[in-house]
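Build the 3D complex.
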Amino acid sequence: AQSVTQLDSHVSVSEGTPVLLRCNYSSSYSPSLFWYVQHPNKGLQLLLKYTSAATLVKGINGFEAEFKKSETSFHLTKPSAHMSDAAEYFCVVSGRTGGFKTIFGAGTRLFVKA
Amino acid sequence: DVKVTQSSRYLVKRTGEKVFLECVQDMDHENMFWYRQDPGLGLRLIYFSYDVKMKEKGDIPEGYSVSREKKERFSLILESASTNQTSMYLCASNSNRGYEQFFGPGTRLTVL
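Done.
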């Protein structure tokens, strides 16, 4: 079975400081992992993806994530937050575990203070 | 670029009305999905389709049906809208070659 847990429902940072959004997953198979971002009243946009290649994945807008199998984590980071990063972020696990299945995390809302 | 479009950004309907939400993708994707998104509940899968005329129930199919007559189009139907179906509806698609899903902009449906 697959599952994904986003450890924080809300994260607040000041502009220019680092961002850390935490995600733990559970999967019986080698998973594919994704981070999506959703700005208010918009659809979800893919930030980055891990599909069993390099464990450090770089995405758009300066975000990156590291796949750590030993910790079953896929945390999203950015060195310096920008006001435009304020949005909701979803960690997603996907894979063929007896069928095609995609599991979305509950989401983490990122607030960026000026 | 993959493009997924949804027929309406905002929709207001009355209880008991039949509601059609349309989704079109232009990348020849095999799979299409309908989700609803509610505060505190995240995204929940309503239905998905892996081929023309094929459909599978997701986690919350009650009160909904779907139609996929052409590969690029996937419709969500509310046979008799109810107030508890007020929500944001998101359509997505992907191919069999990759797991990432591409999302439309969403339809915010209000049922009065």
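Chain A touches chain B through 20 residues (CB under 8 Å).
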